[in-house]
Amino acid sequence: MFSWFKRKTQSLPPIHVSRSDDFTNPSLIYDFFTDLTGIHFDQKESITTPKLIRFAKGNECYTFLELIEKLRSDVRVRESLINLLTVNETYFFREKGQLDFLARRSQTLSKPLRILCAPGASGEEPYSIAIILAQSGFPLSEVEIISIDINTEATQRAREGVYTSRSLHRLPPEIIERYFVVEGDFYRLGSTIKGVVDFRSCNIFEADFLGLGVFDMIFSRNMLIYFDLLTIEKAVGQLKKVARNDQTLFFFGHADLPVVPSGLEGHFEEGIKYYTLKKER
Ligand SMILES: C[S@@+](CC[C@H](N)C(=O)[O-])C[C@H]1O[C@@H](n2cnc3c(N)ncnc32)[C@H](O)[C@@H]1O
User: Fold this and answer.
1) Cα separation of 263 and 232, whole Å?
2) Is the pTM higher than 0.70?
C-alpha cells in the first residue's frame, strides 16, 4: 500500500496549494461589515463573496482571518471595503413627489433652514433639494444642507459636482441649462447650488454623526432598505437625536420602512408620506 502510494505520488505533478482554498467562512467578514455599517447581505452573498476574495488577495490577505485582522487594524483597508460594498445608486429628482411637496411648503418654512441628507451618496439628492428650493424662490442664503455618506469616494464625487447624463435623466432641459455647465460628456454643477451643500464622510452609527447639530428636515432615502428591522430602529434612533423639535419633517424612501419606527408619527398629505417625532402625551 505504502509503495503504491509512493509510486502514485511520485508520478503526480507537484501540488500547488492554491492559497484561495483557505477562503472559508466569509461570514466573519459579513458580520464585521454589518456591525460597522448596518448593511445586511442576505441572499446577495453568492455575488459578494468572490468580490471579497479578490479584495482580500488585493490586500495581501490569503484567509478571511487575515483579512479581518487587517480590517480591524487598518482604517484605509476598512474604508476601501466600504467603498467597494456600498451601493451608491442615485440620480437627480429621484422620488420627486417629496421634493415637489417641499417646494409647495417652501413659503411657510422657517428661516434659516437646516436640512440633513443621510445618506447623500454622490450628491444628486442634496443638490436636487437645493435646486427645488432655488426654483421655488426660497433664499439660498437661508439654507444649509448637510449631506453625509459612509462611502468616501461617493462623498468626493459629490464635492466635485460633475455628473454624466445618466444622473441627470430626470431633469428637465431648462433646469440643466440653468444650473449646469456642459463639459464634453459631463455636466458640471454651478457654484450657486454647490455652495448650499456641505458634504461629510460619516457613518450614521458613529459618534461624530451626533455632532452635526440639529435639523428642520431630515431626508433618509434608500439606505434603510439594506438594514434589518433592528438596525432600521437603531438608524432612525440616530436620526431622531438630530431633529430640532417635533416640527422636524422626516422623509424616507418608499421602500425604506416596513413598519413605522418607534417614536415617529406618520402623516399623509397631498399624496406624500412624511414623519415627525411622536408628541409626548
Ligand atoms: C442607494 S444610496 C441612496 C442615495 C440617495 N439617498 C438616494 O435615495 O438616491 C445608499 C447610500 O447609503 C450609504 N450608507 C450605507 N450605510 C451607511 C451608513 N451606515 N452611514 C452612512 N451612509 C451609509 C451608502 O454608502 C450609499 O451611498
Assistant:
1) 13
2) yes
